Amino acid sequence: MRIFVCFEGCCERFDVAPDQTVGAMKQMVKENFLVQLSDDKQLRQYLELIYGGAALQDSWALRDVGVRSGSFLQCLIKSEERPVMHVFNAITGEILQIMGSKALLHISVARLKTLVSMQSGLPVSTFRLSTPSGVHLYDCNLLHDYAIEIGSTLRLDTWDGWVEFLQGCLRGNRLTIQNNLSENKPVMRFQLQVALYIAASLGHLDVAGWLLLEKGVHPEEPVGVHPYRQWCQQTAHRDTDKCPIHVAAESSQLLILKFFVARSPSTLVCRDPEGHNPLKVALQRGHKDCVRYLANKLYSVVSLPNMTLPMRIYLQIKRWLGLGQKRVALNQCQYPSAAFIARAGLGDKLLVDGFNQTNMSSKSRRFVTRPNRKPTMQVLQTKTPYRNLFIGSDCTSTRTLSQLPSLQCANFHDVKKNENMWQHDSNTNDELLEEICKQDSSQCRGKFLLPPITKNTSTRPMFVGEAPNYYQLHSTSLEPFSHHCGWTSRENATYCLTTASTFTEKAWQKQLKIARTLMRKRVRTKV
Asked: How many angstroms separate the CA atoms of 497 and 447, rounded?
């Protein structure tokens, strides 16, 4: 077939086969137009073919994306800066690219950890960086102290036994997070704060709701350091004082911001390590929607029964009341349960950087040795029921059955009253979260979304010519693809539909046809 390629004001015809790949087509264009491309450590130039408003990948065949005889392709020379260094994330298996100039090789390790944290979504207190030879990078040193060159690949490791927990946080899987929490209460509290930080960074609204409503995590509290490092806070990274509300404003997660502010208005005046409130953070990042919302809330008024106060004065009064309550509790030698601090206690391990071996090698939880637990007597306790909080059209709120009350609860009316109060508060929180989601549902559309997977197990009518075990055969045929590719069929469909939607100049039916072709070719290639 004959196609035409436009390059820098010139148009040339090419006679190619329908199965010609885009990579081979680029080579023909390069030889025909005598294009010279530079390729060094700092800058890389390459050719890009555009058809239907989308950039074609080298592995695609021309007819797979709808290129027919007489079609016109546009050829451009693109330039991209090569990353100064790479960071291998041992948690996800991905390689993060650190972009910039040679000046990055002279920054401190603390600054590099901040860049890695913003790109990966992990708090700086949950990972460490090391050289390819295994040398640990300390925050107070500079990168050139470790002889790191352009193109070097560093390694990101986390605490042993934390891999599954952090993977659940990054994916927004509440069940995985809950199953991998530590049995040590201070460490578990630190993990919950880490989970809220990641949920605020990546926009996992259901996980954030579960942590706030059921686990009592506060978005205005900083993540801090691991409880085993409480004696080394003088050398801790300054970003350990960053709160989830600041990360939400930094990442432009508007729904998370609305939920945090609705739950606790004091988050509006929460300060980060640099002394900036969430509004200032959103202004620095240029997130207009977040700035507009935070400014409206910060400069609004609060209606009380007998008066109306500006939001700033109202928050200042609440701050004074909170300080007074803490002072009274300290004078009475009582510590409020809500202000629980994750600190190590007597008998816990002490970690001092440079003197003992730190357990941050990204080992799986099943390979970490666990101490033998002594059998303890089981006592009947009153467990407060909770609601599983989900956001989505295919999820519903369910309540687990509560256990038997303790023997001390003898008044039936008190038990019934407490249950009604809990149900009212839980319904109020659920309605608040659902209202926030309905107001800005368009903010969740980051990529092509498929309909939710139905969980209906009812029998369906049999069609003529359909095999009795059709669905079983269909799922079995996709198992080799998932095994070799590492993706599920749903993830593959999402990727192909998202890629096809980049052909903005094509009709919707054409985009769907391209997605089907790409999906079929990927299955044939991988299986």
From this structure: 9
Sequence-ordered alpha helix ranges (H) in 105-243: 109-120, 163-171, 174-179, 185-202, 205-213
Range with the poorest average pLDDT among 160-169, 314-323, 494-503: 314-323
Edge to edge, the sheet with strand 127-130 lists 95-98, 85-89, 152-158, 127-130
Domains 2-81 and 184-352+389-397+428-439 share a fold: no
User: What separation in angstroms does the CA of 519 have from each of 490, 492, 496, 508, 524?
Assistant: 11, 7, 6, 16, 9
Report CA-CA distances (Å) from 277 to 216, 267, 294, 298, 301.
Answer: 22, 8, 10, 10, 18
What backbone torsions phi and psi does residue 5 show, to the nearest 5 degrees? -120, 125
**Residue in this structure with the two tokens 């005046």, named with its chain if needed:** 269
Query: How many residues does this entry show for the chain?
Result: 527
d(CA 213, CA 216): 6
The domain made up of 184-352+389-397+428-439 has a fold known as 1.25.40
Question: How far from 244 is each of 200, 212, 250, CA to CA, in Å?
Answer: 6, 12, 10
pLDDT > 70? residue 456: no
Which ranges in 270-394 belong to alpha helices (H)? Answer: 278-285, 288-298, 311-331
Instruction: Please give the full DSSP string across 321-349, using - where no structure is assigned.
Output: HHHHHHHHHHHTT---GGG------TTS-
Q: How far is CA 20 from CA 290, 413, 525, in A?
A: 47, 78, 16
Q: DSSP state, 61? A: B
At residue 409, φ and ψ (nearest 5 deg) are -80, 95
Which CATH number fits the domain 2-81, given the four candidates 3.10.20.90, 2.30.110.10, 3.10.129.10, 3.40.640.10? Answer: 3.10.20.90
pTM for this structure?
Answer: 0.63
Supply the Cα-derived Rg of the chain in whole angstroms.
Answer: 28
Residues pairing with 44 in the sheet: 39, 80
Average pLDDT on 447-467 reads 54
Q: Indicate the domain borders of the chain.
A: 2-81, 184-352+389-397+428-439, 470-526
Tokens of residue 136, six digits: 């640990």
The rounded distance, in Å, linking the Cα atoms of 281 and 275 is 10
| 8 A C-beta contact, residue 193 and residue 221 | yes
pLDDT digits (tens, 9 = 90+) for 25-59: 888 888 888 888 877 666 778 888 988 888 888 88
Residues 6+ apart with CB under 8 A from 69: 1, 2, 3
Task: Round to whole Å and give the CA distance between 384 and 245.
Answer: 28
- Do residues 514 and 506 touch, judged by C-beta distance below 8 A? yes
